Prior knowledge:
The chain has strands at 11-14, 17-19, 22-31, 39-42, 52-54, 59-68. It is mostly beta strands.
Amino acid sequence: xxxxxxxxxxxxxxxxxxxxxxxxxxxxxxxxxxxxxxxxxxxxxxxxxxxxxxxxxxxxxxxxxxxxxx
Length: 70
């Protein structure tokens, strides 16, 4: 069995801002932006002939980090 090669587009945006002693860092990330279907992993010695596992579809992450600097 074989799987076709795939190119996946991931996007990430963020910045760091300082407000006095506090530093904040928001982040937005979009993985598999084109929602491409491709093999994410290969199972070795699988007895059920399911060698290829699909990768996750489009997904996103939003995060906020805050630090207090002494």
